[in-house]
């Protein structure tokens, strides 16, 4: 059964389903190594980050195993974990697609926060950033402080729909697929960069500079997207 070109509609999931079908049919037998990410992307006519999301989804479902320095191998059939469903449709969002949506929406949320934030809102944002710093200093991954920071900005923007939208993004962020992607591409260096970027966002909001807040948030999320779509060679386990 040859690989087929994928239509761009919830891309990573469609790629994962096709690869699973090929594995189940014996095209890729148990113990065999899948083609490299670059080759899969070429044959499927999709981007390498989309293939990466699909491979991570299959890894989460215990269909394949990523072996550091070796490749991606088909596992023996077993009781596989179901696709994550903890957030309804949002649990099916691809992490990189979610990052692009956040880049568009949260940049405007930051601009509104710069215009509308009260002193109490600024204090919550400042406390969240300090929590991130404290978590890093204690050797922890500052995901909790990160979530509080972004939600505090959404709260400060003064628009309930946007506030709930940002909260929805973070509900999806807790999905298994996104967390596994973070396991690969988040490290001390990436979080040091994120802290600096967060500080720039806070600085602009505190200065009541909507344009600077928009730009700072956009830069932060663009860089975050770039970190998550880096080459596998830069990922910790591969």
**CATH architecture grouping of the largest domain:** Up-down Bundle
Termini distance?
28 Å
> What is CATH's topology name of the largest domain?
Four Helix Bundle (Hemerythrin (Met), subunit A)
Q: Structural class of the helices, strands and pairings?
A: mainly alpha
Residues in helix, %: 55-70%
- As laid out across the biggest beta sheet, the strand order is 1-2
Which segments are poorly predicted (pLDDT under 50) over 5 or more consecutive residues? Answer: 84-88
Provide the gyration radius in Å: 20 Å
Description of the structure:
This protein is mainly alpha-helical and 238 residues long. It folds into two domains: 11-74, Winged helix-like DNA-binding domain superfamily/Winged helix DNA-binding domain (Arc Repressor Mutant, subunit A, Orthogonal Bundle), CATH 1.10.10.10; 88-232, Four Helix Bundle (Hemerythrin (Met), subunit A) (Up-down Bundle). It has ten helices and two strands; from the N terminus they run H-H-H-E-E-H-H-H-H-H-H-H. Strands 1-2 form a two-stranded antiparallel sheet. Strand 1 and strand 2 form a beta hairpin. Helix 3 (48-60) crosses helix 8 (176-185), helix 6 runs antiparallel to helix 7 (160-173) and helix 9 packs antiparallel against helix 10. The two termini are 28 Å apart. Residues 84-88 have low confidence and may be disordered.
Protein topology:
Elements: H1 11-24, H2 37-44, H3 48-60, E1 64-67, E2 71-74, H4 95-116, H5 119-137, H6 143-156, H7 160-173, H8 176-185, H9 188-206, H10 210-228
Antiparallel strand pairs: 1-2
Helix pairs in contact: 1-3, 2-3, 3-8, 4-6, 4-7, 4-9, 4-10, 5-6, 5-9, 6-7, 9-10
